[in-house]
Amino acid sequence: MEWTNEARYRTCDSMTVEERKKLELSVSRSLWRQRYHIQPPYGLLNDPNGFVWYKDRYYLFYQWFPFGAVHGMKHWYQTASADLVNWENKGVAVKPELPFESHGIYSGSGFVHNEFLYLFYTANKRDEEWNRHASQCLIIMDDKGKMIKQDTPIIKKQPKGYTEHFRDPKVWKGKNSFYMVVGAQREDLTGCVLLYESDNLKNWNWLGELKTKEVDFGFMWECPDYFEWQNHGVLLFSPQGLPPEGDYFQNIYQSGAYIGKPLDIENNYFEHGAFQELDAGFDFYAPQTTLSPDGKRLLVGWMGLPEIEYPTDKEGWAHCLTIPRELSIKDNILYQKPVRELQEKRKNKVKRALNICESIENVEEFSGQSYEMIVDIEVGSAKSAGLKLRVGEEEETLLYLNKLAQKVVLDRTKAGESFAQEYGTIRQKAYLKEKIRLHIFMDVSSVEVFVNDGEIVFTARLFPQEESCGVQFFAEEGIANFEAVQWKYE
Ligand code: FRU
Fold first, then answer.
1. What are the Glycosyl hydrolase family 32 N-terminal domain coordinates in residue numbering (predicted)?
2. Tell me, what's the pLDDT at 233?
3. Which of 339, 374, 393 lies at the terminal end of a domain, its last residue?
4. Among 49, 113, 297, 483, which residue's beta carbon has the most beta carbons within 10 A?
5. Atom of ligand 1 nearest to the CA of 63
6. pLDDT, tens digit, for every residue of 399-415?
């Protein structure tokens, strides 16, 4: 099918029964549907939106284009969960209806105030010349799920000095006011964040650009998120256009954080350290955080990237979200670890200790497509040691320690159906400690690896054959010790 503008800019209401059935049939034949990740019923998912705890449950929306695996008319799709493990699909929540949102409901955030859930989003409109117009908008939801959309934007357009790339509002409460950050682009085509203030969540004043140490750091900053954590200020954002630097910034676009002092609101100033890339893997973008009712800072990201073709595109669906992760800060470094609640999924524990000398050992009991595994590795005298995952006749995904280089390596060169190869098939990152723990979450078409309690995280999509389920341990040129525990996920 040819994706003309007419085909891309339709709302879900215009989908015929035949179109839906065709998509559902195609998705049902896919080898790569996930078992425990949030994924679209069909069509394309991208950013997580409006992640929030409201009235005894988490709400987590996502960017959704219903008609196929391309970017077009975006809607917000709604999911909800009481436990961060079992998510209920609740269908389309916000769709384009008003003239200023004629080309999509773009990303945004949720904020609970006076018993209501305030959902802030960007309305995207194209005019006859296909020029973009972006405004920030609000829809208010009550505890019955009823939504009332404000019929005019709360921020009509970008301030002078900035382009129409003005989107992704994230709101929080400060000492005396509510604040909002919005991703933006200066007229000199560099990215930044704009800061707004309000005392009622409906009328917003522009405070200015959030001054950071970087004035030329990519051409656009998408999906900003600001929060304060244990006397630190943290700004997450997804800068576009950073050139690769050694092992860093290898993907088409990046996501990361500045950690610093709490914002100096009076002066719009953020005193912060160096940019920290949030993920060392291949497929991670536009993360969003929220606060749990017991005060944890949780993060979910899009397990995908813009402008990359994925193997499921031809099946009429694409992408998923990451598992929810809990954030913490140690020595000014942001750590991510899987939320505790996921332990509820642990079934059929298998435990093995292995001492491997210049060989490869297959552990049949560990074979599978969907599991959690914790592997402690002592590299000992070996030059490199690690795991081969999703092993089949011709397929394998390597996760290992290169002792000489002191790096953890994820190699998907032979993982299965290839994609995004122009960005390379190997990712690696230096590790700090000698003893390494790999905490692995494997699903049918993805892997998430948390190294040493989340000091490094690798997130990647993998598209192997169904039969490629093997798990092997190896050590090269010497001896290595492994202790491994695994739980299969249903
Ligand atoms: C990030 C992004 C956002 C935008 C949305 C549109 O992936 O480009 O900046 O709001 O996706 O789907």
1. 37-338
2. 98
3. 339
4. 49
5. 12
6. 999 999 999 999 999 99
